[in-house]
Design brief:
By secondary structure, this protein is α/β, with parallel strands linked by helices. The protein has ten helices and ten strands.
């Protein structure tokens, strides 16, 4: 199993953000995570990518503003929950946050070069760049354009492309369709659908359940920090309680 989260609990002060959460992502999978606002989806991505500075103390006696965790996060069968974010990224688990913004004053090409900061081989860099351009041809067409002049959809493509330049084994994408028109969403999601064909697994957090379910091989539904359902898109959509209560369909 590529990623395995077991019994994860995250407490912020007196608020339980994640509670006894289990999740798995296999090699080559595209797994979606959906649920209402405040369900804990972004917290989970930040947790597995090391972006939350945890205090591994007992959860008893927590005070306002303090964060604690319990449980395990394993990547490629090794524990990573005690590692800093840069080491987790170097191992191949890469997080593309919601509204991830490029360096506005830099060109598309320079942003992609910044994403390849771990690459020390020119032929490897060229290979990664070719892969990104094959997924997002518009980035190649506009490679010399200043990133601050891009549209919202193009900025999101660049954010994902920059994350791919790190050469992840698992790419975690948080709410990529935020602020985009339906047409741009569909175009972007077609590109995301193609990422697993390059050998990179995807864990996708998304508010647009319909689009997410069209892409995914498996899905998790979160509510109040817990996984309340897991399964294929077809099976989850057959459950009227899940559809109406948690998916808003």
């Amino acid at each position: 199993m590529l990623l395995e989260v077991a019994g994860l609990r995250v407490l912020y002060g007196t608020a339980m953000l994640l509670n006894d959460l289990d999740l798995k992502v296999g090699e080559g999978e595209l797994v979606s995570m959906v649920g209402p606002n405040g369900a804990g989806k972004t917290t989970l991505l930040r947790a597995i990518s090391g972006l939350v500075g945890w205090d591994r103390r007992s959860m008893r006696g927590m005070r306002a503003g303090e964060i604690a965790m319990e449980g395990t996060v394993s990547f490629m069968e090794e524990r990573i929950d005690a590692l800093p974010p840069h080491e987790i990224a170097a191992r191949g688990l890469v997080h593309c946050p919601e509204r991830s913004r490029p360096f506005r004053e830099m060109t598309i090409m320079d942003n992609l070069k910044a994403g390849a900061y771990l690459c020390r081989d020119s032929s490897e860099f060229d290979s990664r760049l070719e892969m990104v351009y094959s997924l997002f041809p518009r980035l190649q067409e506009r490679r010399n354009q200043i990133s601050g002049t891009l549209s919202g959809g193009e900025r999101q493509m660049l954010a994902i492309g920059r994350a791919l330049m790190i050469k992840p084994k698992l790419l975690c994408i948080d709410e990529p369709s935020t602020g985009l028109s339906q047409k741009l969403k569909e175009e972007l999601f077609e590109r995301i659908r193609a990422i697993p064909s390059t050998g990179i697994a995807v864990l996708l957090v998304e508010q647009d359940v319909g689009l997410a379910f069209q892409l995914s091989s498996r899905n998790y539904v979160l509510s109040h920090g817990r996984v309340i359902a897991e399964g294929s898109s077809e099976d989850l959509l057959k459950d009227e309680t899940i559809r109406q209560t948690y998916l808003g369909l």
